[in-house]
Amino acid sequence: MRRQLAPTVVTAAAVAGVVAFSLVASTPVGSAATRPSSAYAVSAEGQVPVDKTPYVESLDGKPKKSSALELPDNPLLAVRAGTVNAGNNSASVELIDISVGADILGQIPIPPDLKKQCDALPPTGADDLPLPDIKLPDLGLPIPLPSLSTKDLPVKNLPDLCKLLLTPPSSLVGIDAVNVWCSGAKGGIDVGALTLLGQTIKIPSTTETFSTPANPLIAITVNEQIKNADGSFTITGLKINLGNGAQIIRLASATCAKPATVKPTPTPTPTPPPPVEGPPNAPTPTPIKTHIPVTG
After folding, report:
1. Where in the sequence is the signal peptide annotated (predicted)?
2. pLDDT by residue (tens digit) across 148-193?
3. CA contacts within 13 A on the Cβ side of 247
4. Among 127, 187, 222, 228, which has the minimal tally of Cβ within 10 Å of its Cβ?
């Protein structure tokens, strides 16, 4: 009977050991926050996916930094330089010279009917002329977009539309620079010149979220701020939506987690030196009895 129990006991001990190891392995190391402070320069979802790059996170509160901006070869997004930082309850991003959809608008063939209307405009233009509803051909974007017409473009009138198509800008969206930072549950952004289809977009305030009017081609959200369920705070400089969600691009995003508790290094207690012993006490003298002769 004891022989039959022995394998069972060994098996139970092995299982208990595996369970104990699993519990230890799954326990978070140290006292870092559930979501670490992190930052990334660029990410994209859709037909042209881009992983968060460069990306850093601070698991233990120590400062992390990266400037390794390497985007995959793609016809949609270009960035000249970017730097990201993350630390204990702080993060920041710096981006320089961003272009979305470079030279794409120059590849759009102008419908003949629209070309005739543009040629018939007076030299000074006519701002009160309504936009014609003419179906646009394939825009040449590397993403599938819904069927668009001239009324879906973010322009106000026919002269603006003619200017856009006859002298197209160099990109769909252009940004000189984007700086984003967060500290605790606060953050801010600084956006340089921002152009949409060649037109400068005036951002009314960088302390609140701002969005351009939505349309099937493109929409931009500036300074998107989110308080996450775990107590962390995320601020994203720009979110660019192409084709009603067919392609989402995020630029300059920083997340500040709850502060990681950094345990101070204990100061060793010095061992007191042994007491210094003085010279030993002299022994008590012993009287000696002797006979001294009397003289005189």
Report:
1. 1-31
2. 888 888 888 899 889 888 899 989 999 999 999 999 989 999 999 9
3. 21
4. 127
